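Continuing from the previous page...

OK, I double-checked the sequence for Urea ABC transporter permease subunit UrtC against my notes and this is the correct one:
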Amino acid sequence: MRGLVGRWQTWAGFALAAVVLFGVAPALLSSFRLGLLGQYLCYAIVAAGIGLAWGRGGMLTLGQGVFFGLGAYMMGMHLKIADAEVRKQAVPDFMQIAGIPALPSYWEPFASSAFTLAAIVVVPTGIAALLGLGVFKRRVKGAYFAILSQALAAALAILLVGQATLGGSNGLNGFRTFFGFKLSDPVNRQMLYFIAAGTLLVVVAVVRQLMQSRYGELLVAVRDGEERVRFLGYDPANIKVVAYTAAALFASIAGALFAPIIGFITPAQVGVVPSIAFLIGVAIGGRTTLLGPILGAIGVAWAQTAFSERFPSGWTYAQGLLFIVVVGFFPAGFAGIGALFRRRRRTKADATPSGEPDPLSESEPVGAAP
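Thanks. Re-ran it with the corrected sequence; updated structure tokens here:
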């Protein structure tokens, strides 16, 4: 009976989210604000993967900007080639300015939309799987893994800045079409938002299934007692690699959607600072829950936009202060506040003897004799 109730609650939650994302938001928000919400949903997709890898698996992933950037740049390469073909030009506009007469060889496969979509899925997951096997098989974990992942994000950003064929520090920008649809058309931009919203719901469903499966139980067991899991005959490295690879896949898909929604992608959006920003949203929302990372990422991104519009120089300090407060006083994030109150209520109820009145809930009537 409890399982049936939980299943209905899950379906009701997804239905409510679909109504809000596909009905209420497009009806109430302007085209500009809807585009901003689309960006926030991309951040939420990344956060869902971090919640799985960090919240359930204990892997502090400080380098998700790597996979986010891979997906964004691969999508940007395809969009720039498509724009050049529409204009009947041999190379994209920025290559003409840089004096590059022909497409580099590694650009040519991205003229195919099928290859691009496949690469967005295969390349980041392959890199994450190889990296994860190399790191976790050597039992690298904790702060060492976090530093390594952050170093990869910094290395990718530095590499992209030095690549003239990828736009250098300016990155790829000025996208005009998306698989044949003009991005200047508000209807097509709304379509991009719907794609991001639908992708987020699918990712949440996948993460929920992983968390509630036997694999999810093993992942939590690895986080809490890796040596015990190894003693039981499981290889913790393989369990970690699956979560790390899934998080990389979600980040790559989010990056691929982010590039056409925002209209550009630069090295500054894939380095160390964006990777830490992803993590802050997850920590504030509540990394061990399903919806905490998602709501935290959306809330932090919205707050950044709102505060930056009014206090351009103060948001960084406010973000840092918020992160310190959450880590110092609410380690489980805002999602853990409700659980804390419920735990205290249960403790108070258990402390009250059955059959006796609770002195905290009942008091003597006014005017009663002592």
